[in-house]
From TrEMBL:
Transmembrane region(s): 143-161
Alphabetical list of Pfam families matching this protein: DUF4808 (PF16066), fn3 (PF00041)
Organism, as annotated: Dicentrarchus labrax (European seabass)
Protein name from the UniProt record: Fibronectin type III domain containing 5a
CDD domains: FN3 (cd00063)
Signal sequence, renumbered to the chain: 1-19
Superkingdom of the source species: Eukaryota
Location(s) in or outside the cell: Membrane; Secreted
Start and end residues of each Fibronectin type-III domain: 24-115
Amino acid sequence: MERFFLLVLSCLCVSRVTADSLSPPVNVTIKAVKANSAVVTWDIPEGDPVIGFAITQQKKDVRMLRFIQEVNTTTRSCALWDLEEETDYIVHVQSISMSGTSPLSEPLRFRTPKEAETQASKSKDEVTMEEVGQTTQLRAGELIIIVVVLIMWAGVIALFCRQYDIIKDNEPNNNKDKAKNSSECSTPEHPTGGLLRSKV
């Protein structure tokens, strides 16, 4: 009985030592801070048997927390969403192993800017990949429209030239037909000398 008790106690101690030996994440930083979102990044000490991470997000001077848990991942970053502009936040990161979680990382404080400041901070020379894609799409669309218009104009001009050639080719025939029609419509000669022959 004593041996069983000692075995259970030693297993608990080993588990406790393993969990306590798991170091908290280091180099916790905030990037891409916007009015309503941000990205938290971190590193882990080499050799820690980490299977995931837990991120705690809290408004300053507010007890309510948001807990984000990422398991079975090698990612060293997490997006924070649905933030409020001009608000102070505190973020902690913990490592997760099979035996438990690490202590909390050092608290990281940051403040979200105003939406207007976020827009103004974007430099005129700074072009995001999304804007590049939109510009490329616009240019491709404009090019297609120009090509279609040119083809339509070419078709209209070709049709006009064809009709003009047909009309021009038919003009002498029309004159001959008119002359023929006018001669056919003239008074036919009467076998006895015609209608206009004097009876004298």
